[in-house]
Amino acid sequence: MLPIIGSLIVLLSVLGGFLMGGSSPLLLWHPLEVVIICGAALGAFIISNPLKVVKDAFKGALGLVKGNRYGREEYVQLLKLLYDILVLARREGVLGIERHIENPDGSDIFKKYPIVTTDHHMMEFITDCLRLIAGGNLDPHELESLLEYELETHHHEAAEPAHAVQKVADALPGFGIVAAVLGIVTTMASIDGASTAEIGHHVGAALVGTFLGILVAYGFVGPISAAMEARANDEAKAFEVVKMALVASVRGYAPPVAVEFARKLLFSAVRPNFKDLEQELRGKKTG
Question: Is 42 helix (H, G, I), strand (E, B) or coil?
Fold first, then answer.
């Protein structure tokens, strides 16, 4: 919702100021300039990126209208899931969690947390980490190092669409200049016998091309890229939480302590306080 509100503010501010100066919005209506700028930008975007990044970029941009996947309640559910798994592993040993790893859809533990299980990437990360732990061949330092490499790869992949969109934003002012130059070429070609009004119309259309390139770049595409990158960073925090809890458990910390280590990683806006989380875990323990 915030991206939509922000976009409306940009439009209202620019067009409102233009109209307050006594101008007509029809002066900015030049579809050919839009076709040149947006078409060239889209083509360059497709040329410079693999198909997966192109799809993820459009999906990520459209997904900005929704809230972040993980809020306070989602993190509470994730921490409770980790707590249940760690308690089971301590009570029955790592072999006790194998049936949950191999068939998470049928696991009575995972079924209690549908918010987490609907996240395919998170489920894959958790089950892969538990397989490593169940193997018993890695010490805590090796496990932490391996998971850090995996998270670095995941973060890089998640940020690629935002970086690709930012490159489009950087190129848009240039495409605006291209549209303006083409407009000037048209003006020069029609100057013989043209009236002053006609020449002014062509020059105005050329200037609109420059205007649109800069406005779309800094008013829309650039902010969308920044929002996509911020969202990717926010969602990456959930994976760091899982890594911290599991590594702390392998180091020998009790499940409540391991989960507390993970809680400390969360940003203040989504982090449950100690007492609230303790009550949640105690409820699971006594229920």
Answer: helix
